[in-house]
Amino acid sequence: MFFKSIPLGLLVRCPSRKGAIIWYDHCLLKYSDVSFFGQIDTNNRFYLYNVQEVENGTVFNKKVKELLSEVPLDTFTTLYGLAQCTRDLSGVDCKKCLDSAIGELPNCCNAKRGGRAVGGSCNVRFELYPIVST
């Protein structure tokens, strides 16, 4: 039975077992009694941000929107970015999902030193420190 492999925390928090999503730094688990395969999920999204702000928010926000890995901000500062989609999305839908998440970053994370828009189909993240260890 599929539900035996679902983390216990989900079963406790979602006893009806009709659907749930759990996010970790490097993965997510989503299940539902409604088909969602290949569909962009913009309903299940939340935001996290660093409470510290940057000095020049306008320039920084522009660099965040570019969301490129290891973008040089100045001589001493590097901006790190991460963008991910679930594997069930097509390339076109992945881009739509990421564009939507990136578009919401100014609302949650304006001039913050780091932030995330995390959803059921994609997520974006930026930080002033390396996000993924090599």
Task: Please describe what this structure looks like.
- This is Cysteine-rich repeat secretory protein 38-like.
- Keywords: Repeat, Secreted, Signal.
- Belongs to the cysteine-rich repeat secretory protein family.
- It is found in: Secreted.
- This protein is of the alpha+beta class.
- The protein has two domains: about 1-30, no CATH class; about 45-125, Gnk2 domain, C-X8-C-X2-C motif (Killer Toxin P4, Chain A, 2-Layer Sandwich).
- Helices cover about 25% and strands about 25% of the residues.
- Strand 4 (about 70) and strand 5 (about 80-85) form a beta hairpin.
- The longest helix has 19 residues, at about 90-110.
- It starts with 7 loop residues before the first helix and ends in a 7-residue tail after the last strand.
What is the strand tally? 7
Please state the structural category: alpha+beta
Main sheet: strand order: 3-6-7-5-4
| SSE topology string | HEEEHEEHEE
The CATH architecture of the largest domain would be: 2-Layer Sandwich
Instruction: Evaluate the radius of gyration.
Output: 17 Å
Number of domains: 2
Q: Helical proportion?
A: 25-40%
Mean pLDDT: 80
User: CATH topology of the largest domain, anyone?
Assistant: Killer Toxin P4, Chain A
Low-confidence stretches: none
Biggest beta-sheet profile: 5 strands, antiparallel
CATH superfamily of the largest domain: Gnk2 domain, C-X8-C-X2-C motif
**Helix segment tally:** 3
CATH class of the largest domain: Alpha Beta
In terms of DSSP E residues, the strand content is 25-35%
- Our measurement of the CA-to-CA distance between the termini, rounded to an integer number of angstroms, reads 36 Å
Tell me the overall shape: elongated
